[in-house]
Design brief:
The complex is a heterodimer of chains A (217) and B (1013).
Chain A (H helix, E strand, L loop, with lengths): L6 H29 L19 H7 L4 H4 L14 H8 L10 H9 L5 E2 L12 H6 L4 H5 L16 H9 L23 H11 L14
Helix pairs in contact in A: 4-5
Chain B lengths: L26 H4 L3 H8 L14 H17 L7 E2 L15 E9 L2 E10 L2 E7 L12 H4 L1 H5 L9 E2 L2 E2 L2 H16 L6 E5 L5 H13 L4 E4 L6 H11 L4 E4 L6 E5 L10 H10 L9 E6 L4 H4 L3 E4 L5 H13 L8 H4 L12 H13 L4 E5 L5 H13 L7 E4 L10 H12 L5 E4 L4 H4 L6 H4 L5 E6 L11 E4 L8 E4 L5 E4 L12 H7 L8 H16 L7 H11 L18 H9 L8 E6 L13 H5 L7 E2 L4 E3 L1 H7 L6 E6 L2 E9 L7 E5 L29 E9 L8 E2 L14 E3 H6 L2 H9 L20 E6 L8 H10 L6 H5 L8 E7 L12 E7 L8 H5 L5 E3 L5 E3 L9 H5 L6 E2 L28 E2 L5 H13 L12 H5 L5 E5 L6 H6 L4 E2 L11 E4 L1 E3 L7
Parallel strand pairs in B: 7-8, 7-15, 10-11, 10-13, 11-12, 15-16, 16-17, 20-25, 22-24, 28-39, 29-38
Antiparallel strand pairs in B: 2-3, 3-4, 5-6, 5-17, 9-14, 18-19, 20-26, 21-27, 22-25, 23-24, 23-26, 29-36, 30-31, 32-33, 34-35, 37-38
The chains are: A mainly alpha (217), B alpha/beta (1013).
Chain lengths: 217, 1013
């Protein structure tokens, strides 16, 4: 009777062990890697808002500063969403018949707020504060991307903890003069990026803060 | 696992040690009980980490289900953002607003500043501008947010069980009013909560104009009629005393728990603590009391004596005073026969106290407690007058409270009228009189003889069950109103939130009787104060709006304080007191004394689970009251802690668990009021037993002739925290005398020195001096009475959950601060009640620089910040509990169950949005209020400056009435905390372990009279 297991079975056993181990490792790495992709972070999710608000038009065509609507960005943890009344300050005069703005008018008349979908969301145990970032010269564009080119606002960065920490460990490359925070197109002088960043860190008294309680309380 | 605690501790089976431990927390510990030993062998008490009632099979079911559900939970939550329609200009979403308001307990205002997050009040602080708060509060105010968001509040106006709208009710009252007015309101009565409100006073006046024969009766189950009556005896009118401890160097307390009871408690605590800094003019406190209180723990000399015998001590001290030159005015009073000649008062004690009082003449104080009868108050007033203290350490006013009397004597007249059928309409705004009224009045039965009874009810309690109409009351945080402080300073009570359920205020209900029930308290209030402002010349008519706004923002109305009077002692005092003294009960039977509870007050906070779970400042009992008695009495009666005892006086009786309290007077038991509730409030029902069932109307505080009988029922297991989280007999709380401290010699001095000198190290510790801040805390034990305000403030700020009695029993309590209470005594085998010294020590995470918890965490969930804070990272924690195991201070708390989701959505509204809510399986502990640090850091850095010393106050520090807690940066040489860390009294807890704790303690210094040592 021939042997039940042939020498090639040894190879097969070793191979299958390799495949099993490798598969488990690849699976784990795959999940971890996938979590870092734009898709997993919801960066490409289409988000339907109650009103087709177009940032391109307001910021580029009309040249309205971010802080005109996001009024509390310099003094509160939240940048603030404009109240219905703020929208109507202009839109009671212009486009006051537009059917696109019907939900805004209805909100004002009925006294019911407009419910927006949150685009850039961090977990509840993260206490992000807009005012400190803005006052230290971190521009809107750094985290939110080119909102002025977005027909509908999308998440521009992964907002993972490691993404936050990249900047918290080395903030200089992401700094700009505080008067330029809302400027979507500001760039440091070519070839002097490093010097400009370090100069700004010095000027704005930027500290690297990486202790856990900086963000988690 | 061995269920060692199941049968309760057995005192009889204890091994008696030759040498008692120096500091002990319970009788079991002192006697070296094997149960305590067993408990300490484990990191958590033996039952803490066993699953409740879950079989292995059930466990696997649950595990399988939860594994399956994890797969289903992988969708991203869809978050919404909702902006305002019209944003109020003062609101910045994300930043809290602070509003000044007040809370009236027993009628007196406590000025408050309330944090409001997007219109949701979450945290109470004291108003520094208010004369009775000075920036701190008591436990009761700290627990207010939970009382506001109480899902069990009365919600529906109902007439004979039928729901009714407020407008229909107003029409009903109007109709009723026409009928009542026919005979001038002769059958209309109001049973009201004691009040100082100027608006309510005006409304009462207007009601009486319309119904001249109607009557208002104030009632509170814990009213201090002895004080009013005593002042009337002494000065001819019922003046209200207000004390000033900044001007008192020697204080004799006659059963006055002035640090944790009464409307003056917060201010008096601040003033008393300020006088306890060791120096030549440090104050000295003599306390006479039946049961140990927080004030008693601060005493330099304490006498334990039955409550009705305090008068004997008062007489003895007075007699000694009369012997002193210049005090012969007291000789007539001293000549009165002793009320209780059989009581032997320690003559040396009385003489020493008297001598001290005289030495500090004009700067001394005799203060009598709320429970003491008129005679004791009158004697105290006479002594203060003779010592020249009137006008300095005690001042007198009239007109702060509407009615001087609000106790059982005030109620008696009304009860007789009802019994005689003379009352047809009764309006009740007093808090739960059916529960709190003396038992012999049988108020619940009597109410059925009244045609219509209307009750302004915060809860559907015992009284609500006995009335015809329930009118839901608005909580203080949702009402407009006004109230005066103890010096008469008025404050506007402004609402922080619109009423959660349709409800009205007392002013609305009274206004309904003059046809203005639909105006709303705001209009009534503003009209009243506008008239005041213009008639008093405080503001012009058009300028009133600005004046009103300034009152609201400051929280007090300037120039409304009532000037003190300088009363003269009435000539008839001696005769009157003599008459009273002849009626003092004598005899040796067991006495029952009733105590205002340190947690639920008179029962009005019984549904507040924060207060229920708060360990009692002395007994450390949670979720219960008990029959407290001394060890000697317990031995005579053969009672042990936990025994269910029946207390009988005549035909009245209650049954409850006994608890042996060190330092309690013999032949006497103390029972806290406010428990054994039977209303529909759900949470407070079934907790403890109702001591009011023993309270007769003629002796509301101390009643003689009780018999104690042990029942055969199994022992009660208290949810008691006193032996939890022990630090193994290392004498953690150091106390010494001023003399010994100043000599810089002796055992205690060496102990302090040993606990502050640098430890030898084998590696260089991390240097934090280059960091911008080095956060640290200092706790001065000389200033801490263990009042619990810090515990409650911490729970409110940091969203710590409540776990319930069952979970407390097995050591799962979650409060981040625990107030350790240690006893020391001079006895050997048996402890010595008469030489008992008590010390309390607030205890939370020490933020060790070399923290033992950090080395053992497998997932780096507890790490150090660059500034030396010991951080707890909830989202990393996997719940191994190794950190807690390795923490020598036992400062960590573990979420054994999902406590946070066990409450209703309304109740969740009290939460602080700046602190993560922890779920099951997460370790947590004190963070030094890191959310406050980071928020101030951001403010400072946005403004481009450094954080100033004192700018950050931790929640416990801010609320502390004694000012015992200081927080700041050690890198600031001028900071208060740095100075305290350099203080001679400073020591580190468990210093020998070289944990380098950032929290340092300052030893308590007592100032005993050398003549009594």
């Amino acid at each position: 009777m021939p042997a039940l297991f042939r020498p090639r079975h040894n190879v097969m056993a070793r191979l299958s062990l390799l495949v099993l181990g490798g598969g488990a490792a690849a699976g784990t790495l795959g999940v971890l890697g996938y979590q870092r992709t734009p898709m997993a972070r919801g960066m490409q999710d289409p988000i339907e808002q109650p009103i087709q608000f177009d940032h391109r038009h307001h910021t580029r065509d009309e040249g309205i500063d971010c802080r005109f609507c996001h009024t509390t960005v310099e003094r509160s943890p939240h940048a603030g969403l404009p109240s219905t009344q703020l929208c109507l300050n202009c839109h009671s005069q212009i486009w006051n018949q537009s059917p696109l703005l019907e939900p805004v008018r209805r909100s004002f008349i009925e006294g019911k707020p407009i419910v927006w979908q949150k685009v850039n969301d961090v977990p509840d145990f993260v206490y992000f504060n807009h005012s400190i970032h803005v006052s230290k010269g971190v521009g809107c564009v750094t985290c939110h991307g080119r909102v002025d080119q977005m027909p509908a606002v999308q998440k521009a960065h992964t907002l993972t903890m490691s993404w936050c920490l990249d900047c918290h460990k080395n903030p200089a490359p992401n700094l700009r003069p505080t008067e330029e925070v809302t400027n979507m197109e500001w760039q440091p002088e070519k070839g002097k990026e490093r010097e400009v960043g370090e100069m700004l860190a010095e000027k704005n008294q930027v500290h690297t803060r990486t202790s856990c309680t900086t963000c988690h309380r | 696992m061995k269920k060692s605690m199941s049968s309760g501790p057995k005192l009889t089976s204890l091994k008696i040690l030759g040498q008692a431990p120096k500091q002990w927390r319970s009788l079991e510990e002192r006697a070296g009980s094997s149960d305590i030993e067993t408990e300490r062998r484990y990191e958590f008490p033996p039952d803490a980490d066993t699953l409740d009632e879950t079989s292995r099979r059930g466990f696997i079911h649950l595990m399988g289900a939860s594994l399956a559900l994890t797969g289903a939970a992988c969708t991203r939550p869809n978050q919404k953002v909702v902006p305002y329609v019209k944003q109020p200009p003062e609101v910045t979403p994300g930043n809290a607003l602070h509003f000044a308001t007040a809370y009236a307990l027993e009628g007196y205002a406590m000025g408050l500043l309330v944090d409001s997050h997007s219109g949701r009040p979450t945290k109470i602080e004291g108003n520094p501008d208010h004369p009775d708060s000075l920036g701190a509060t008591s436990v009761y105010e700290q627990a207010l947010p939970l009382g506001l968001y109480d899902d069990h509040r009365a919600k529906q106006l109902a007439h004979k069980g039928q729901p009714l709208a407020w407008r229909s009710f107003l029409a009903h009252i109007a109709g009723r009013g026409i009928e009542l007015a026919k005979d001038g309101g002769a059958k209309l009565r109001f049973l009201v909560e004691p009040s100082t409100s100027p608006l309510v006073a005006e409304l009462k006046g207007r009601v009486l104009q319309k119904f001249p024969k109607a009557k208002f009766v104030s009632f509170s189950a814990v009213a201090s009629d002895g004080a009013a009556e005593g002042a009337r005896l002494a000065f001819g009118k019922p003046l209200e005393a207000r004390h000033d401890l900044t001007k008192a160097q020697v204080i004799l307390s006659l059963d006055a728990d002035f640090l944790t009871d009464g409307p003056e408690q917060v201010r008096l605590h601040r003033e008393f603590s300020a006088g306890r800094t060791p120096s030549h003019d440090m104050s000295r406190l003599y306390v006479v009391e039946p049961c140990l209180t927080p004030t008693g723990t601060m005493a330099d000399h304490r006498l334990r004596i039955r409550g009705s015998e305090v008068v004997a001590v008062a007489q003895a001290v007075l007699a000694e005073l009369a012997k002193q030159p210049g005090l012969d005015g007291l000789s007539a009073l001293a000549g009165l026969p002793r009320a209780q000649p059989q009581i032997r008062v320690d003559a040396r004690w009385a003489a020493a106290a008297a001598k001290d009082l005289v030495t500090a003449r004009g700067k001394s104080l005799v203060i009598a407690g709320r429970r003491q009868p008129a005679a004791v108050h009158a004697l105290a007033h006479a002594m203060n007058a003779a010592l020249g203290n009137i006008g300095t350490s005690v001042t007198f006013r009239t007109g702060v409270r509407h009615d001087a009397l609000a106790g059982s004597e005030a109620l008696r007249g009304l009860v007789e009228e009802i019994a005689a059928g003379g009352v047809d309409t009764l309006v009740i705004t007093a808090r739960n009189p059916v529960y709190g009224a003396p038992v012999d009045f049988k108020l619940d039965k009597l109410l059925s003889r009244v045609g219509e009874t209307m009750y302004l009810a915060l809860h559907e309690d015992e009284t609500a069950a006995a009335v015809t109409t329930i009118v839901p009351a608005a909580h203080s945080l949702e009402s407009w109103g006004d109230a005066r402080g103890t010096d008469g300073t008025a404050s506007i009570i402004q609402p922080l939130i619109a009423p959660l359920w349709s409800s009205v205020t007392e002013a609305d209900l009274l206004a309904a009787f003059v046809g203005e029930g639909d105006r709303g308290t705001y209009q009534l209030l503003k009209t009243y104060w506008q008239r005041q402002a213009t008639t008093q010349g405080w503001s012009t008519m058009p300028g009133f709006e600005g004046t009103w706004e300034s009152w609201l923002s400051k929280g007090v109305i300037d120039r409304t304080a009532i000037a003190p009077e300088t009363p003269r002692v009435d000539g008839g005092l001696t005769a009157a007191v003599g008459g009273l003294l002849s009626k003092v009960p004598a005899g040796g039977e067991i006495e029952v004394s009733f105590a205002v509870d340190h947690k639920v007050f008179d029962g009005r906070f019984a549904n507040n689970v924060w207060l229920q779970e708060l360990p009692h400042p002395i007994t450390k009992i949670t979720w219960d009251n008990a029959i407290l008695l001394s060890r000697t009495t317990a031995k005579v009666q053969e009672i042990e802690t936990g025994d269910i005892v029946r207390v009988e006086i005549g035909d009245r009786h209650v049954t409850g668990p006994a608890y042996i309290q060190p330092g309690h007077a013999d032949e006497s038991v103390t029972i806290a009021l406010g428990y054994g509730r039977k209303g529909a409030e759900a949470r407070g029902v079934g907790i403890g037993f109702n001591a009011n069932l023993l309270r007769p109307s003629d002796a509301p505080w101390f009643t003689r002739g009780a018999r104690l009988a042990k029942t055969a029922r199994p022992r009660h297991r208290f949810g008691i925290t006193q032996d939890h989280w022990a630090m193994e007999e290392r004498q953690p709380a150091i106390a010494t005398t001023l003399k010994e401290f100043e000599s810089k010699k002796g055992e205690v001095h060496e102990l302090i020195e040993a606990r502050r000198r640098p430890n030898p190290v084998i590696h260089t510790p991390v240097d934090y001096s280059k960091q911008p801040y080095k956060w640290a805390m200092a706790i001065d034990l000389s200033k801490c009475s263990g009042c619990n305000a810090c515990v409650m403030g911490c729970a409110s700020e940091n969203n710590t959950p409540v776990v319930g009695r069952e979970n407390v029993r097995i050591g799962r309590e979650m409060f981040w601060i625990r107030l350790d209470r240690y006893y020391t005594d001079k006895g050997l085998n048996d402890f010595d009640d008469d030489h008992l010294e008590t010390i309390t020590q607030p205890h939370m995470c020490m933020h060790c620089e070399t923290a033992p918890c950090e080395y053992v965490c497998p997932v780096n969930a507890t790490v150090h910040s660059d500034e030396g804070l010991n951080e707890m990272v909830y989202n990393r924690c996997i719940g191994t509990r190794y950190c807690s195991n390795n923490c020598p201070y036992k400062a960590r708390r573990f979420n054994f169950l999902d406590y946070q989701d066990a409450i209703s959505p309304v109740e969740k509204m009290h939460r602080n949005p700046n602190v993560t809510v922890r779920s099951r399986g997460i370790m947590e502990k004190c963070t030094y209020c890191v959310q406050r640090i980071e928020s101030k850091r951001i403010d400072a850095r946005v403004e481009g400056r450094a954080i100033k010393d004192g700018e950050i106050q931790t929640a416990c520090q801010q609320v502390c009435p004694g000012g015992a807690i200081t927080f700041g940066s050690l890198n600031d040489a001028e900071a208060k905390v740095t100075k305290l860390h350099e203080d001679e009294r400073r020591y580190n807890l468990l210093h020998e372990l070289n944990t380098r704790p950032r929290t340092a303690y300052l030893a308590r210094i007592r100032n005993p009279n050398p003549e009594l040592s």
